[in-house]
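Notebook, student rotation project (T.W.).
Task set for the rotation: take a protein with a known small-molecule partner, predict the structure of the complex, and write up what can be learned from the model alone. Partner molecule chosen: zinc ion. Sequence and SMILES entered below by T.W., checked by me.
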Amino acid sequence: MPDQIPMVEYLVLGDSPHLEANECTNCGARFFDRRNACASCSGREFTKAAIPTEGEVRAFTIVTPFMPGTDPYVPAVVDCGGTSVRANIVNTPPDPEHVTLGMKVKLTTFSIGADTTGTEAINYGFEPAN
Ligand SMILES: [Zn+2]
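Predicted structure of the complex:
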């Protein structure tokens, strides 16, 4: 079985892939990147918080690249139990009929390629929950 490495530090792989935020122990603000101090309260202690894998689309845009051979994609902001997550909407046609504000989505992971030793890089997105 090939090794897998997450594209971002806050993506936790395994049997039930999920995102993990750094949560300020003082005020509860959540950050996906590593912080030395909380942007809300200047607190300096953080704990790991698992983010729910289901959420609702709060904002999105459909990007159609001018580069030939590059597919349109849908960057979005997804509210996962009160935490805003930026990700692309995937596994659905990139048009306003299939991507709507408030639609229910769930986290999914996918390989974006492997190196010569077979180690796969894994990224995440959200797909319609249905
Ligand atoms: Zn704080």
